[in-house]
């Protein structure tokens, strides 16, 4: 009886797989038709031979030169080029994830970029944050690393972040980015290379230092590292290439499909909060939205016995129907008004 049921289940799964495969092929062919008839300059990793009906998949083109944080990537070395090629293939053909990155990245870059600039950290490290967490605010690794910058609890506290049952600033994008900058600059003092700093962010200072001593080499591209760290910088480079020029790698996302940067304002508190659901309602939002903009608040209350000052971000009125095109229209109207004056 169990075997018969298993056979039925397998048969159902096979039918579903075939159905999904047919849909996927239809989507690809439809996309090919669209691309073949479109007059834009968007490159596509697919091509269709109209005579034979065969679909061809092409690898993404690698640039002749590339750098990370101003440091050259030795693409003339076959092992380096092939390692980058692997990550480019993975990320250009993992369509759903890469499309999501393209859509949501501007919302996070809007916060991260000015902090990196202010702290003197190269702009390319915004792609490290993406590689770390996929810009999932509540990301938690199996090892217990948390947030966009994936801080472990001891390291977070070492770099000034508050971590307790009520408040966990690893989830606070602004404060976590500031702490990450301190950590990155500290490592730069040690290694003198931003590329090695990126590798150490993944493997940890001890892990990288051990390999430097064992292999008598300080160059990331010449070190034999573990699978994850050995691919880490290349993944960051792939994300940099794709997100810097999505259309060059076959991704076309309309501007009104990019996740909008929601206008917010700050509310400062320096005492306890008995109930954040009530607090949210008093400020015209619900608890879900309060937590969306402030994931660092870990409980529904805040005791705050020391009277510490906290800044809570809340969305401006009309936030739930705010779209990117509205922001652009407002900017255009402001520009027209300025010209009229």
TrEMBL record:
Alphabetized InterPro entries for the sequence: Lysozyme-like_dom_sf, Transglycosylase_SLT_dom_1
SUPFAM superfamilies in the cross-refs: Lysozyme-like
Keywords: Membrane, Transmembrane, Transmembrane helix
Domain of life: Bacteria
Transmembrane segments: 12-34
Residue ranges constituting the Transglycosylase SLT domain according to the UniProt record: 113-221
PANTHER family attached to this UniProt entry: MEMBRANE-BOUND LYTIC MUREIN TRANSGLYCOSYLASE C, SOLUBLE LYTIC MUREIN TRANSGLYCOSYLASE-RELATED
Family: Belongs to the transglycosylase Slt family.
Protein name: Murein transglycosylase
Species this protein is from: Prolixibacter denitrificans
